[in-house]
Amino acid sequence: MPPDETTDDKAHAGRQSGDGPPRAAGDGRQRLTPEQHRVLREGGTERAFTGAYHDEKADGLYRCAGCGAALFSSRAKFDSGSGWPSFAEAVGQNVTLRDDLSHKMRRIEAVCASCGGHLGHLFDDGPRDRGGLRYCVNSAALVLDREPSS
Which one is catalytic: 64, 112, 115, 136? Predict the structure, then answer.
């Protein structure tokens, strides 16, 4: 389990998946693909090993597909074998954590702090030498801003 402050935050404690900041009218549906909308706005999950970034090796910055906020650096990405992009840490405070009590289990949901879009979940089985956390993220929630090749 990640450090207690992630689940004891009064602003997020006891909230369930799907709760979150109000969405703007239209909630970006016109610029999101149906799959991005299902994941980001409806809390869906893409099937393992099907997303565009699960095996991506390019350098760059992963941004929220819903609002463009910087979420994860490629330097924090690692191969967890799970079939979803996995990151050891988020960029700054751009990812918010909250309790997810859906599917008769308790998990920690990761959402975009800017738009409230569902990204995935946080687990405590990441690389120990990098803090032990694994942000397991849906590719559909991300857009890779690639660094230019030298």
Answer: 136
For 75-118, the pLDDT digits (tens) are 999 999 999 999 999 999 999 999 998 888 899 999 999 999 99
Domains of the chain (ranges, CATH numbers): 32-146 (2.170.150.20)
Active site residue 136: yes
With beta carbons less than 8 A apart as the criterion, state whether 98 and 110 touch: no
Dihedral of alpha carbons 64, 69, 70, 71, sign: negative
- For the chain, give the percent of residues with pLDDT over 70: 79
CA–CA separation, 69 vs 115, rounded Å?
8
| pTM of the full structure | 0.79
pLDDT digits (tens, 9 = 90+) for 117-128: 999 999 999 999
Sign for the pseudo-dihedral over CA of 17, 9, 113, 87: negative
The four Cα atoms 98, 146, 51, 67 give a dihedral, to 10 degrees, of 40
Beta partners for 143?
A: 63
